[in-house]
Amino acid sequence: YTIAAAALRNACDDAKIDPATLDLVLVATMSMESTCPPSACRVAAALGTRNAGAFDLSAACCGFVFGLNTAYGLMRSGQYRRVGLVGADTLSRFMDYSNAGRSTAILFGDGAGAAILTATDDPAKGVIAQAMHSDGARFGDLYIPEDERGYPEGVEHDPAMVHRVQMNGQGVFKFAVSTFPDVIAQTLDKAGLAAGDVDMYVCHQSNARILDAARKRFGLAEDRLYVNIDRYANTVAASVPLCLHELRAAGRVRAGHKVMFVGFGGGLTWGTSLWQL
Fold this sequence. Notes:
Order of helices and strands: HEHEHEHEEEEHEHHHEE
Strand order of the largest sheet: 2-1-3-4
Mean pLDDT: 95
Number of domains: 2
Number of strands: 10
Number of helices: 8
Distance between the termini: 29 Å
Radius of gyration: 18 Å
Largest sheet: 4 strands, mixed
Shape: globular
Oligomer: single chain
CATH architecture of the largest domain: 3-Layer(aba) Sandwich
């Protein structure tokens, strides 16, 4: 929870707000340090949030994107005005560093990123359209078994695999190649927008080839779909907020922009959150 707390503190500093003013803390992660307490509770306590609500959201690589939609829905209820949303994962703890698992281990990195969401009375701002999907029947393409019950049907229990990431790289690639552009198209259709109407696409960083193929499919310039996987690898729930941080710092995402956040990964899960900033 420590890197999650550090990311949220940095976000509060960037937003020039006191963490004590947060009504709710959400931590998107699949590598929480304990089943109980939730990481979000420890993050909230570390920042001195004065008993803010706090819970973890587990949706693998889609965690931050699903968290954006969750936070927005809660704020739209009128019960929460300011939400701290964190995406944080340390998958280095769950990697198989033997020869058998090395090809998977080199794909992932540890990281954390955060955003502050504040309610507004401006009806033009917020989520324009969103999508959230899952296909649990295909969970065996990417999973972390915790005991003998955590394996796909037909896979023999192996104690060496427990608490280690198991990935069918080819299966995940085929899944992402189809669902990633399709969910973007679905969201654009919901919003009544063309691909070029969106100022920036902030996507989960799992594979540069997948990102580039989607960019070309929609006829986007290279600077409209951000890529930083070459520097950080796949940081799971942290990848989208890390991209967002760099884009904001460079002035490439700012107020008035339409930004689509896109995630896809373990579960299997995939989804979007299209915002008018």
